[in-house]
Automatic annotation (TrEMBL):
It comes from the Bacteria. Residues 219-246, 398-425 form the PLD phosphodiesterase domain. The lineage of its organism: Bacteria, Pseudomonadati, Pseudomonadota, Gammaproteobacteria, Vibrionales. Its main location: membrane. InterPro entries: Cardiolipin_synthase, CL_synthase_A, PLD-like_dom, PLipase_D/transphosphatidylase. It comes from Photobacterium atrarenae. The keyword Membrane applies. Keywords: Cell membrane, Lipid biosynthesis, Lipid metabolism, Membrane, Phospholipid biosynthesis, Phospholipid metabolism, Repeat, Transferase, Transmembrane, Transmembrane helix. This is Cardiolipin synthase A.
């Protein structure tokens, strides 16, 4: 019997090391970013058994067999639809500035989505303003309303939006709602889904979280886009989830969340609608390709904007938003101002910001003073010394959890959307961002960024270097996992 147990133990050890070897080979042959590969190798060798299981659950971009098959079948019809936008009168490549052209060419070549002019934009930076504007537009809807969010949290003005949607559905408007399963867990446990479905609203739980699916699909892959489209005429996108900050995470100790949304009219609305139609079909198999925009450009208007809509995530070209961001940074000539709640830059982005500062460009990064993620906070700190040493200005915002994701280049070109400056947003989740080539709108966003800076404390290198050794050790420890955060 003793020999049997010895043989069993030996077989167990052999199987374990075979599993480790198999996962190691898979990581090596995947040829991903070196930092990501090294982080996973460290995890599987340091954490016995658990490291292998963690890799099987979270190590690869696995959308699930059914969704992946749908996505492959959708490439051709959606590709035709997006290429048809080149025939829209709003497609005016000859009118693009030298800043917009490289990003537009990148997106046309990799995504097939052109930049379009003839849009009007409204920057909304107050939760009450955003939610009340949305309720008003919902009340005016005649035909369709499509919404998708990472988080819908019941309470306050969010309930007014829900009520407005129910009223719209009852008067015959087609309403479709796509919400991430993990982010909107509180919503799906509330009474709102039942009330909405009774009113005729289609409510779909995206990327459902279930222990039965853990080995079939990567569970931490999330639908992080925030898009609203009304009658294919009005769209909203930006950083804000469908929440009232007065009722959302009030016990987190970080203050109210600070967000912006952009209200868009014009041909870019149809592009956002097309991205939303993609997400809906990936999840449900139902196709609702929107009509192409009927646009007449008026480039003489001061509020006419060239907008490039950039989606990213599984099924989209790898790191497309990451590339657009790097292009914008390397084009900068005077200034770069970034606001982000989670700052764990890629190696390329980290060096781009340092290089920009070292060539004399004024680089400012605005982050929350208090963060709702401890791991992200410590990993983020590990980048500060090099950035401060290079002359980058880092500001810690005190007015709440600054959740606005924005980049302003030379006060003339900007990026705004759902993308955090971390690996999860840049390489994993479903995201969307707008690159906007319009000095007037960019100046307005830049003024808002300056307001954030006025409510922030400025980090000084000498003071930062005096922090305790234990903090430095924690920063370096979490830095090792930064490619996975």
């Amino acid at each position: 019997m003793e020999q049997f147990y010895q043989a069993l133990a030996l077989a167990g050890v052999l199987l374990y090391w075979l599993a480790v070897a198999a996962v190691t080979l898979r990581i090596v042959f995947k040829r991903r970013v070196v930092g990501v590969s090294l982080a996973w190798l460290m995890i599987i060798y340091i954490i016995p058994i658990g490291g292998v299981i963690a890799y099987l659950l979270f190590g690869e971009l696995n959308l699930g067999k059914k969704r992946a098959e749908r996505a492959r079948e959708m490439f051709q019809p959606f590709g035709v639809w997006f290429r048809s936008l080149n025939d829209c009168p709003g497609h005016q490549p000859q009118a693009m500035s030298t800043r917009a052209r490289p990003i537009s060419e990148l997106c046309e070549n990799r995504l097939g989505i052109p930049a379009l002019s003839g849009n009007t934009l409204s920057l909304q930076n107050s939760p009450k303003q955003i939610l009340r504007s949305l309720v008003e537009d919902i009340h005016q809807a005649q035909e369709t309303i499509q919404l998708e969010f990472y988080i819908w949290h019941p309470g306050g003005l969010a309930d007014e939006v829900a009520t407005a949607l129910i009223m719209a559905a009852k008067r015959g408007v087609s309403v479709r709602l796509l919400l991430d399963s993990a982010g909107s867990m509180r919503f799906f446990r509330s009474y709102w889904p039942k009330l909405m479905r009774q009113a005729g609203i289609e409510v779909v739980e995206a990327l459902a979280v279930s222990p039965f699916r853990m080995f079939l699909r990567r569970l931490d892959l999330r639908q992080h886009r925030k898009i609203i489209v009304i009658d294919n005429r009005i769209a909203y996108t930006g950083s804000m989830n469908l929440v009232d900050p007065e009722y959302f995470k009030t016990d987190a100790g970080v203050g109210q969340w600070i967000d912006v949304m952009v209200r868009v009219t014009g041909p870019a609305v149809a592009v956002l609608n097309g991205i939303q139609a993609w997400d809906w079909e990936v999840e449900t198999g139902q196709r609702f390709l929107p009509p192409l925009p009927q646009c007449t450009p008026n480039l003489a208007k001061s509020d006419s904007d060239m907008i490039q809509v950039i989606p990213s995530g599984p099924g989209m070209p790898d790191e497309i938003i990451h590339q657009a961001l790097l292009l914008s940074i390397y084009q900068a000539r005077r200034s770069i101002v970034i606001t982000t709640p989670y700052f764990i830059p890629s190696e390329h982005l980290h060096h781009a910001l340092i290089s920009a500062s070292q060539r004399g460009i004024s680089v400012h990064i605005v982050i929350p003073d208090k963060n709702d993620s401890i791991m992200v906070e410590w990993a983020s700190r590990s980048f500060f010394t090099e950035l401060l040493s290079a002359g980058v200005h880092i500001h810690r915002f005190h007015g709440g959890l600054l959740h606005t994701k924005s980049v302003v280049i030379d006060d003339s070109h900007c990026l705004i959307g759902t993308v955090n400056l971390d690996m999860r947003s840049l390489r994993l989740n479903f995201e969307v961002t707008l690159t906007i080539d319009n000095p007037a709108f960019t100046h307005q966003l830049g003024q808002l960024q300056q307001d954030y800076i006025q409510d922030s404390s400025y980090m000084k290198l000498r003071e930062w270097e005096k922090r305790p050794v234990i903090q430095k050790l924690l920063e370096q420890f979490f830095y090792m996992f930064s490619p996975l955060l």
